[in-house]
Task: structure prediction
Amino acid sequence: MTIGQLAQELNIKTQTIRYYENQGLLSKPERTQSNYRIYDQNSIKRLTFIKRAKEIGFSLGDIKTLLEMSDKKVNRCADVKDFAETRLIKIRSRIEDLKSMEMTLSDIIKQCSQPNKTAECPIIESLTEG
Amino acid sequence: MTIGQLAQELNIKTQTIRYYENQGLLSKPERTQSNYRIYDQNSIKRLTFIKRAKEIGFSLGDIKTLLEMSDKKVNRCADVKDFAETRLIKIRSRIEDLKSMEMTLSDIIKQCSQPNKTAECPIIESLTEG
DNA sequence: TGCAACCTTATAGTTAACTATAAGGTAGTA
DNA sequence: TACTACCTTATAGTTAACTATAAGGTTGCA
Result:
């Protein structure tokens, strides 16, 4: 598939795909004899990973490292472990924060559905303690 | 407390605090007779909320809305509910993605601890399906 | 063959969220 | 009283991550 088709499939811009290639997140793809980039299912997988990793708060730099780990380009086990461990700590605290925000928001929605009750709004409290 | 003390407490820059004030995330604080801003425990709470909401992927615009909801400046229940519901959907999918990334990373750490096994690296798979 | 809709590279512009600088006032201490 | 470390506002610069533009080549179809 061409870059345009890939971009449409994933709802991103073609420029963004080229940008990721420049940044080393995507490897140089095969080309047609007329120099067009060619992509396959694997490219869709990789870009889906990038999109979702971005959504959960990883920088492109982090994502690059994760992809390199996945590609086995990074072989020093200690480095991989260190990186994974520090990310894991962050991920766990993010999950806690998100859960706490989730509870608060669903409480708010419930309160909105019963407009008689005018309970206190606990939004700030949700992420303040702990 | 002064802006400098507040900034130190939360490990952010004084400029950032003033920036948040300009953006409407913090209300105009009291001033000393020499025009210095004065802050209290409540300011710490509010800034802690902002910091953590940012970490879990909210934009400053979203955070402003959440704070306004908290401050009861937004009273139209339907609006609050709509906002909360769309955020809630995003939060839930982020939690799923984070959990899946969490599992993958802890598997990697395990594999690193048993260097004899050279299992496949499932990083990309972690966020591709679903 | 002509033309719209693709593709290429290189480079410049945009947006969000800071971050630094300039120019000057204030407070506490040697 | 002078010095250092604060504070003020306004404005300019930075960084990450795109996003758009310019200038030109390619493909497929009427």
